[in-house]
Amino acid sequence: MTAADQFERLDRELVECRRCPRLVAWREHVARTKRAAFRDQDYWGRPVPGFGDPAARLLILGLAPAAHGGNRTGRIFTGDRSGDWLFGSLWRTGFANQPTSVARGDGLALRDCYITAPVKCAPPDNKPLPEERDNCQPWLQAELALLPGLRVVVALGAFAWDQALRHLGPVRPKPRFGHAAEAPLPAGRTLLGSYHVSQQNTHTGRLTEAMLDGVFLRARELLEEDPQTR
């Protein structure tokens, strides 16, 4: 079974998950009521799998699917302003073949890069509860197990930073999150921090395109290094 086949099998299992009653109720409520701009569309309304290159050495960790983004389109960071920022940066830095993504099947392909989130269902107010985060742990662990060549992790926000350390650490003392923060992980991997691509950060100028591009350019530098010399 190829890596792509294994990811496909994992995705089929994931989309049937109903472990968190609050998240199930919310994602399905949003899918029924919809946003006015998308009232003619069929919402996905299920857990949202990761997406990308099965042989990726770069992993991007977000927080959870957006209610009217991934929860609508069925693909992480697809169909919302956060995704516009993220995929635009990945295109400019050579990790994506196009700068935008509006729907599954729109031709987007990631190169040497896989994107996922520690929480697979859209949470109310973008705030998963600790038990919901914990219920999702096995899914992220399964994804990580299918990425044996992983070298660099970019954490979008403090939540993703903490989850990367939780799953790929331990690192002591615990490194602090910050934009462009960098920390070594076991097995020769590196963790990079970036402010999340949420509108709260991009609309206020807290995160600029140059800042985001800088993180992914640093990721590329690390990937091009000989791991034997580190």
Textual characterization of the structure:
The structure is a single chain. Helix 4 (81-92) packs across helix 8 (209-224). The chain is an alpha/beta fold and 230 residues long. It has a 6-stranded mixed β-sheet, with helices on both faces. It has a single domain (3-229), classed as Uracil-DNA glycosylase-like domain (Uracil-DNA Glycosylase, subunit E, 3-Layer(aba) Sandwich). The chain has 8 helices and 6 strands, in the order H-H-E-E-H-H-E-H-E-H-E-E-H-H.
Question: Keyphrases for this structure?
Answer:
6 strands; Uracil-DNA Glycosylase, subunit E; globular; 230 residues; alpha/beta; single chain; 6-stranded mixed β-sheet
Number of strands: 6
> In the CATH hierarchy, what is the architecture at level 2?
3-Layer(aba) Sandwich
Overall pLDDT confidence = 96
* Largest sheet strand order: 1-3-2-4-6-5
Classify the secondary structure makeup into a structural class.
alpha/beta
Question: What is the terminal-to-terminal distance?
Answer: 33 Å
Q: Main β-sheet, in a few words?
A: 6 strands, mixed
Radius of gyration: 17 Å
* CATH fold naming: Uracil-DNA Glycosylase, subunit E
CATH level 1 name = Alpha Beta
Quick structural gist:
This protein has 230 residues and is α/β, with parallel strands linked by helices. The chain has eight helices and six strands. Strand 5 (182-185) and strand 6 form a beta hairpin.
